[in-house]
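Consider the tokenized backbone below.
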């Protein structure tokens, strides 16, 4: 606490420069600051457990086959368009010549020099950061024959990705060879593969033209007198903006003459069957129309797109696809490439418009003036200067913001700045908070706002002189001047009713109706709470939590408990008039856990006994929330309700519901009603809850439909969470439920929160997605906001932007901490602006784009037929890709599908969204499942949506039991599974362990402790803990994955050819789905068709 008690006149955290720079300095990095959740409860918190990236296979060079960000990728019919790829790849000069990263702060006598790129001048000049960190093997790297050909007979996921110096010709031959190969995996490599051969003479070598546009070499001659940049971002220099740095030639460049003649070469075969695209495209009915068996193709042409009939054949009998799945962009490859290229260096946020590493890459972040990507990720880090350009591209401009994100222990939590009674310094006009982008003028007496340009007097207590560069001399002493993220202690002006808040309260509200008691749930919850109450969130080094607790049980009536410390026994008070809810006691309802421990323990012992013989099956629901709300009102505090509920609330009471589930509505215009609440009662209740800061977390245990769409309204609009355990069984589900409950109770939460996003002139926040309530068009209100919740904000132009000044975002979150302290958390992010569409496409992030598109679509189903939503998604993405093709790619024949490098996974991921349970449900998906998923996704961060839509599939039998690494992931397709292996698939909600029928008996013995395949029980909810390396390895992988996710995933054992396999196959998202969703290959063809239509 000493940190935030420092007077504002002194540097709040000692010697600033080394502190900022050397993040490992014990004084800051290692110390648990107020609100640090990681350090408090080691046993429960397992986020980010040093996730080790697997070492790439020997001889495998990741970054060639589909080149890295910034250059286009061509598919299918013509590789001449690949030429610019390789040119583009050169824009990052060889890393070998780059200066080493700066050593830790101690070695810098003055932090000033090290951070000189932070100067406003530089920032304003637009450092073209985006491309530089994408390090690739130097273009001149010699081709290594020994490392090259992956035998085609191995079912290697990576086989299509040639060695790094494979020329375009080689790649083309490769693709052609694979495509026309007549049967599957065991075919010998086509003669023309040319892997080990020297570069064909026809190819002059892509590097040369590229080098001419690649800008100065990485030795950075123009930086001789200044220190190295904060990382080894080769070629990154704040000098001339744009022109010299961006590799791929601008769209106006004439195509490289050398490639022209090859255009019609060996790809004729692939283009042959094109009529199929336009005509009877077998998969087409799946996109827009209701699922159903697609019409069979008119004839079985081995070259045609695989029809459903073909897909049903065993893989070995399948005719060769016209498009080889290995020749289309692979998510696994992109993820691997990014890990290899960007996982080793910290991501330093000092440069405007930098695209961060992918969410699947494990990297450290150093805050040097922009918020960490853990807090904010954008769909694009380069915003079109005009709204016309933005409209033309159709690329949504959105930021996915997780204001209270948990950081790994190696990173520094935001510092808390206390400006005393005067509060934070803000712009007079737009009220933006002091941040690194504000410009001090007139010797430091005033500052000009970076958002609205208004000039504001610097308050006397905040005055500081400027140095010769115009920077305040206390620049490094103040987080708000030098960091992207920090907190201010709020003054009373920021508090409700001008009164500092009381510490929040937690109220546990337990359904004690027949089902809840009978299943053992009530006893389980009561037992758990006895110990869990010792782990309520605490602030910093506080001895005990400031949070008070209260208890309610209910069925048709509510029971309140007086657990005042002076009582010998708890007292129950029953409220049976649920129509007009009130709290029958004030004193003794909300108590301090330690003071009332004996009484609370006694109560938790008694509750299961009291209701052991209940016959009451009916429940109420709205009155339960009202009771919690009234209790918090009476106590004048914010708080959270933890409601454990089992059934549709049909008892006579406000908010009573009826069963209106109707699967016949699926694929009709009325389907949207399944997602809408059946009464507006809960919306009004949610509004009252938000006004009080009453957040609702709902744990559901349904045995049948209970209308999640309606029950979820209050949790959703108050920023709470919903957990669902269908057909809850103590034996199999308690571990998962208890893990979720523990994490939910302990996690960092801000109460009574209001978030506003300010932007620099030219753009503004226009739309918001997430779990919150809005009473006006700018403020996002949340009764509670926890560390896992994200808010997605969309931006639109209201004026022109300039390349020089870029675009700025400032997200300010006002909230009450778990100890009742009112705070402001500020995140700042600066983005580049562009006048060339190519720059936009080079600086996009597809994972974030998909996060936005999924949320947009999932909101759309509330008001539009699902088919309309799916069609709109397809159309928007086709427009995005067509705009690229038209404006950024080199001219080429219409038979080519050309995808921007940064978006080459857009089709595969989009297809996953389109066939997700919300947009295209299979027969086994319930209405409640869909409503549940819809609400979950709306608050997901980018990492969560990434794995949710494209699950991670790991071959467990390929795991190295002697290393910490994970086995290399494989693509989500049945073709990739071998009968002799065991696989793990996770999507953030479930973990499947799939066992092939031919798995060695010893492996089965080691993993399941049984002697044969037939003895494996698929009723297991955990793997047995066995004393052998394989079992331990698998256990450690499962634990690692569980630790990375915000919810405890359900473990499901699936035996090949067992009935549960259908469920598992649903997650093999590159395949055609049972509900009619297209395979990746089919969908890519469909997208191609859509794009061609737009272009013609
Ligand atoms: Zn302003």
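A designed sequence for it:
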């Amino acid at each position: 606490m000493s940190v935030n008690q420092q007077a504002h006149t002194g540097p709040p955290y000692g010697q600033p420069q080394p502190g900022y720079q050397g993040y490992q300095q014990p004084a800051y990095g290692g110390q648990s600051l107020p609100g640090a959740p990681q350090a408090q409860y080691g046993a429960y918190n397992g986020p980010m457990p040093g996730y080790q990236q697997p070492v790439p296979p020997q001889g495998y060079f990741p970054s060639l086959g589909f080149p890295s960000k910034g250059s286009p990728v061509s598919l299918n019919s013509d590789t001449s368009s690949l030429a610019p790829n390789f040119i583009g790849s050169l824009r990052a000069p060889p890393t070998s010549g780059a200066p080493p990263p700066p050593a830790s702060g101690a070695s810098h006598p003055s932090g000033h020099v090290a951070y000189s790129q932070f100067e406003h001048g530089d920032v304003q000049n637009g450092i073209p950061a985006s491309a530089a960190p994408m390090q690739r093997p130097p273009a001149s790297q010699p081709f290594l024959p020994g490392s090259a050909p992956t035998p085609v007979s191995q079912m290697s996921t990576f086989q299509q990705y040639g060695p790094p110096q494979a020329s375009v010709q080689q790649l083309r031959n490769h693709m052609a060879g694979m495509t026309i190969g007549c049967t599957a995996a065991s075919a010998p490599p086509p003669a023309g593969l040319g892997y080990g051969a020297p570069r064909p003479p026809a190819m002059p070598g892509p590097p040369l033209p590229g080098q001419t546009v690649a800008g100065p070499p990485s030795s950075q001659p123009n930086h001789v007198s200044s220190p190295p940049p904060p990382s080894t971002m080769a070629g990154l220099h704040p000098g001339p903006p744009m022109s010299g740095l961006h590799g791929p030639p601008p769209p106006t460049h004439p195509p490289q003459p050398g490639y022209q003649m090859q255009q019609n070469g060996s790809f004729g075969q692939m283009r042959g069957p094109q009529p199929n695209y336009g005509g009877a495209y077998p998969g087409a009915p799946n996109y827009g129309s209701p699922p159903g068996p697609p019409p069979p193709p008119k004839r079985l042409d081995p070259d045609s797109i695989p029809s459903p009939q073909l897909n049903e054949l065993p893989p070995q009998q399948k005719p060769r696809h016209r498009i080889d799945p290995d020749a289309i962009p692979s998510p696994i490859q992109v993820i691997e490439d990014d890990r290899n290229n960007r996982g080793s260096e910290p991501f330093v946020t000092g440069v405007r418009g930098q695209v961060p590493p992918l969410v699947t890459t494990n990297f450290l972040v150093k805050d040097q003036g922009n918020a960490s990507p853990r807090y904010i990720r954008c769909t694009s880090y380069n915003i079109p200067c005009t709204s016309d350009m933005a409209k033309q591209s159709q690329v949504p401009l959105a930021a996915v913001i997780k204001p209270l994100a948990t950081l790994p222990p190696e990173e520094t939590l935001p510092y808390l700045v206390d400006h005393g009674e005067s509060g934070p310094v803000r712009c007079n006009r737009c009220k933006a908070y002091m941040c690194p982008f504000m410009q001090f003028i007139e010797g430091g007496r005033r500052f000009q706002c970076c958002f609205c340009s208004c000039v504001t007097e610097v308050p006397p207590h905040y005055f500081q002189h400027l140095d010769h560069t115009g920077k305040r001399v206390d620049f490094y002493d103040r987080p708000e001047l030098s960091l992207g993220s920090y907190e201010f202690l709020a003054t009373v002006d920021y508090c409700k009713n001008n009164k500092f808040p009381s510490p929040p309260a937690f109220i546990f509200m337990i359904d004690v109706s027949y089902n809840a008691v009978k299943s053992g749930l009530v006893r389980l919850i009561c037992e758990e709470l006895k110990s869990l109450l010792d782990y309520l969130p605490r602030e910093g080094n506080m001895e005990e939590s400031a949070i008070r607790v209260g208890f309610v049980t209910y069925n048709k009536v509510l029971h309140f408990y007086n657990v005042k410390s002076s009582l010998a026994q708890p007292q129950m008070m029953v409220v049976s008039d649920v129509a007009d809810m009130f709290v029958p006691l004030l004193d003794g309802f909300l108590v301090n856990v330690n003071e009332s421990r004996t009484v609370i323990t006694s109560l938790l012992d008694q509750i299961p006994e009291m209701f052991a013989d209940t016959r009451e099956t009916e429940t109420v629901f709205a009155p339960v929330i009202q009771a919690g709300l009234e209790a918090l009102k009476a106590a004048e505090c914010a708080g959270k309700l933890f409601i454990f509920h089992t059934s549709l609330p049909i008892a006579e009471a406000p908010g009573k519901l009826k069963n209106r589930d109707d699967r016949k509505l699926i694929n009709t215009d009325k389907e949207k009603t399944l997602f809408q609440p059946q009464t507006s009662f809960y919306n009004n209740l949610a509004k009252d809850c938000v006004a009080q800061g009453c957040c609702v977390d709902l744990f559901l245990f349904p045995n049948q439909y209970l209308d999640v769409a309606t029950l979820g309204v209050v949790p959703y609009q108050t920023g709470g969470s919903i957990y669902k355990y269908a057909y809850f069984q103590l034996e199999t589900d308690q571990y998962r439920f208890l893990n979720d409950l523990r994490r939910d109770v302990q996690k960092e939460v801000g109460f009574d929160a209001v978030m506003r996003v300010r932007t620099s002139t030219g753009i503004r926040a226009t739309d918001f997605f997430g779990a919150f309530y809005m009473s006006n068009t700018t403020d996002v209100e949340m009764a509670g906001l926890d560390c896992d919740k994200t808010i997605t904000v969309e931006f639109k132009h209201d004026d022109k932007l300039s390349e020089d000044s870029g675009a700025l975002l400032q997200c300010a979150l006002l909230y009450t901490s778990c100890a009742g302290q009112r705070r402001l958390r500020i995140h700042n992010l600066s983005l580049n602006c562009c006048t060339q569409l190519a720059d936009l496409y080079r600086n996009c992030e597809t994972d974030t784009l998909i996060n936005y598109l999924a949320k947009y679509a999932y909101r759309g189903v509330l008001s539009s037929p699902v088919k309309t939503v799916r069609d709109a998604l397809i159309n928007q993405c086709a427009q995005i890709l067509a705009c690229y093709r038209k404006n950024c790619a080199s001219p080429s024949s219409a038979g080519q599908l050309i995808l921007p490098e940064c978006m080459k996974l857009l089709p595969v991921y989009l297809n996953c969204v389109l066939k997700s349970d919300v947009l295209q449900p299979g027969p086994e998906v319930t209405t409640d499942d869909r409503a549940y998923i819809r609400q979950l996704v709306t608050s997901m961060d980018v990492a969560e949506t990434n794995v949710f839509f494209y699950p991670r599939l790991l071959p467990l039998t390929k795991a190295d039991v002697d290393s910490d690494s994970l086995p290399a992931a494989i693509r989500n397709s049945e073709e990739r599974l071998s009968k002799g292996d065991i696989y793990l698939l996770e999507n953030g909600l479930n973990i499947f362990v799939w066992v092939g029928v031919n798995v060695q008996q010893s492996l089965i013995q080691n993993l399941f402790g049984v002697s044969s395949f037939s003895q494996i029980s698929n009723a297991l909810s955990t793997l047995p803990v066995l004393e052998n390396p394989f079992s331990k390895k698998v256990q450690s992988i499962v634990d690692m994955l569980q630790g990375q996710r915000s919810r405890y995933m359900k473990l499901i054992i699936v035996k090949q050819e067992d009935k549960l396999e259908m469920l598992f196959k649903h997650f093999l998202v590159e395949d055609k789905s049972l509900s009619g969703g297209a395979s990746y290959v089919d969908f890519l063809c469909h997208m191609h068709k859509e794009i061609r239509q737009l272009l013609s």
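Confidence is low (pLDDT under 50) at residues 1-321.
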